[in-house]
């Protein structure tokens, strides 16, 4: 404020210019999650359901590896259990369901093979595997490598914008 009071005309006769830089980049990292589930009616079925869930897990992992992914790119989650009870109006259990579910997460830099792998894994449905295939997310992780050039370009564009503005206003930049 003190400088504005000291030099009021200079403060009122200033403008700032901003530059912009854009660059189209390709993703270099993909994350993708495949979930699977098995279900049964009674608690007594849980051991057999667990074995079935493990078998589905092995089928999915095998398909991922056969498609070109390595162990380092595949993370196997735990198999979890949930139970759902169905009651009548007197709150008496009339039916129950046991669910076992798990997930497998893929993180890879092999972007080009993700869509073909998804198609192969989804074909496991024909083998009785209950699959929930989420959409992959794609990321660009090398921003720091291109940032200096983009900042240089943005600064250059800001100088061009300031010069154009000054020329149109009949003043000088500085």
Task: Please explain how this structure is put together.
- It contains five helices and six strands; from the N terminus they run ααβαβββαββα.
- The protein is of the alpha+beta class.
- Strands 1, 2, 3, 4, 5 and 6 form a six-stranded antiparallel beta sheet that branches.
- The model has no long low-confidence stretch (mean pLDDT 89).
- β3 (80-87) and β4 (93-108) form a beta hairpin.
Describe the secondary structure blueprint for this structure.
Layout: H1 2-6, H2 8-12, E1 29-40, H3 46-66, E2 74-76, E3 80-87, E4 93-108, H4 114-122, E5 130-133, E6 137-139, H5 143-169
Antiparallel strand pairs: 1-4, 1-5, 1-6, 2-4, 3-4
Task: Sum this structure up briefly.
The protein is of the alpha+beta class.
Overall mean confidence score, pLDDT: 89
What portion of the residues fall into strands of 2 or more residues?
25-35%
Taken from the alpha-carbon principal axes, the silhouette is elongated
Portion in helices? 25-40%
Report the structural category: alpha+beta
Report, as a whole number of angstroms, the end-to-end distance. 21 Å
* Residue runs with pLDDT of under 50 for 5 or more positions: none
Biggest sheet architecture: 6 strands, antiparallel
Order of helices and strands: HHEHEEEHEEH
Number of strands: 6
Count of helical segments? 5
Radius of gyration of CA atoms, rounded to a whole number: 30 Å
